[in-house]
Amino acid sequence: MDQTTTQPRCRLTLASHKCACPTRLNAASLLSTSPCQPQGIKGNLDCVTNSVFVLWDATPGADSYTVTAVDGEDYLTNCTTSTNTTCEVKGLACGALYNFSVTAKNMQCESQPSAPAVPCMEPDVTSITPSL
């Protein structure tokens, strides 16, 4: 791993071992890799705006992140942010259960999605069913 940059890189040196003649090593090359999966996913539900604020730990080498929300009916919504580690997912359906995942991206490729997370509701929020 190259320690001079925050982007994950591998140092690669090639040499041939098939020939009886010794070969010269080529100059080392740096290859960029995809960022790792984001970790530490947390979410806070805002019942007034039907949105969720999703937070996660920074991933070395990530240029941007995408948060994806999927409900049981395959409704999909997302938000994208630069290097911020928070994002507000808007337009969620009231009463639906969503799973959220975060994907880190750089110029070369993107990470695998994080493990799904379910947002937490504030402890003082209650549901009231009106009586007719």
From TrEMBL:
SUPFAM superfamilies: Fibronectin type III (SSF49265). Residues 37-124 form the Fibronectin type-III domain. Pfam families: fn3 (PF00041). InterPro entries: FN3_dom, FN3_sf, Ig-like_fold. PANTHER family: FIBRONECTIN TYPE III DOMAIN-CONTAINING PROTEIN 7 (PTHR47135), PTHR47135:SF4. This is Fibronectin type-III domain-containing protein. It comes from Anabas testudineus. The lineage of its organism: Eukaryota, Metazoa, Chordata, Craniata, Vertebrata.
